[in-house]
Amino acid sequence: MKRSIWGFLAAMIIASSAASAATDKPVSIVLVHGAFVDGSGWQAVFDILAGDGYEVLVVQNPTISLSGDVSATNRVIAAASKPVVLVGHSYGGMVITEAGDNPKVQSLVYLAAFAPDAKESVASLAEQPVPAGESGAPLLPPKDGYLLVDPSRFPTAFAADVDAAVTSFMAVAQVPWGLEAVQTPVDKVAWKSKPSHFMVTKKDMMIPPTFQRAFAKRSGATTVEIDSSHAVMLSHPREVAAFIESAATAK
Length: 251
Fold this sequence. Notes:
This protein is of the alpha/beta class.
């Protein structure tokens, strides 16, 4: 007897729900990617966390507008079955700072990320002079309301410690970053009321490590540093997963 495609999909949804319900951890983990990439960059971290028994959900934020990305994140938070540890990489830190105000979110994890205060945007934070010996993102001039990283410099700037075959593809597969997302300031600042954790990437050539340390200090975050490029979830997935789990189990 043939099953319709709708019956098959319904079965898959039920199986997925059962798998989620079977997780033995008291929190869910929601992963929010940054600019120029999509949620697939979390795969290695996802596999580790899911294998350790966590319900893990991944946001595919469009990176066109901050409000749109916060809305996309809130939809995923709503789908989580348990209180949420909200994780943001890079520009994803802007998103989790605002979306983290959601009462379902219990703590925040920033990975090589922006952690803004009220009325700050990526654009305003990027106006600070880059410290000597550090590098800022090699962005091309805006075009049609979007930003891209110079493809010729993307592999070394974004992920110098990741296989060149991977980063060369990432350079040509970039997701354009909307100027509206870059220029919009945050209104809500979740790190002022919720525990925060920050992983500083010491070899970062997109967000200078000095900036990251300042964000971490200002937010009162539990902080670790790692010898990594900006794409720490790709180059050090085990360390990233362990850091997220330490936030998930923190008292």
